[in-house]
Amino acid sequence: MNQEIILLCLAAFGAGFIDAIVGGGGLLQTPATFLILPQYPVATLLGTVKIPSLAGTTIAAVKYAKQVKFNYKVLIACTLSAFIASFSGAFLVSKINNTQIKPIILVVLVAVALYTYFNKQFGVQQHKQQTITKQVALAAVFGLIIGFYDGLIGPGTGSFLILVFIAALGFDFLGASAHAKIVNMGTNLAALLYFAYSGHILLQFAIPMAVFNIAGSFLGAKLALLKGNKFVRIFFLIVVFGTILRFAYDVFLKA
Fold first, then answer.
1. What is the DSSP string of 18-36?
2. Which end of the chain is more exposed for a tag (fewer CB within 10 A), N or C?
3. Which domain holds residue 217?
4. 231 in helix, strand or coil?
5. Which pTM value belongs to this model?
6. How does pLDDT run across 160-180, given as a tens digit for each residue?
7. Angle CA(151)–CA(149)–CA(16) in degrees, nearest 5?
8. Is 229 in contact with 177 (CB distance < 8 Å)?
9. What is the number of structural domains in the chain?
10. Is the dihedral of CA 111, 125, 182, 8 positive or negative?
11. Which residues, at least 6 apart from 44, have a Cβ–Cβ distance to it below 8 Å?
């Protein structure tokens, strides 16, 4: 038990650090939890990791809120739609074969990585090209899509949110990351409510993991704010590449 908690807490710290900067901490925390606690059902492990994820994301969001100006109309529209969709995705996760969706996501991720790498100005500066009405509408639509994805599959949600805030809504990397944290709080909370209602949470593991996820998130958010957009852009590319490897393994190698 003690060894399991130590390993889980280390994974949670790393996940919190990554999540606070560009999202994608679930790529570390979720597989690690599955590996360390193979004796528990998948739904129980998914429910358990939602507590540290929510805790760490909340701390990062508070840290960003002190230095980044939020667009509250866009934020509310995206968060509300993502919350509803994430709850629906969590409900349907046991009824839909998500392996058919993963090849499509893999292609999208490769395209995102290539575009971000070759477009050096992508997300370095803020570019507002739409009216606030159009931004709110786009935020609500993408909130539904990504929220549902988070509840159904999960890994890379933070990175997809950042991409939407930059490419569709015209934010820079730092602003996109800050807004993504709030939306991700909503998706995590929605999924957590469903898993808690259905009794799929192991508090003896979730609570210490949450403490370490918070510590990692605090450090990650502080570093992102200190280093700025170019650092976040590089970190974004690294995490997207890691996400690509994960999905490529699932699509081509995993039985």
1. HHHHHS-THHHHHHHHHHH
2. C
3. 2-253
4. helix
5. 0.78
6. 898 889 888 889 888 898 999
7. 70
8. no
9. 1
10. positive
11. 200, 201, 202
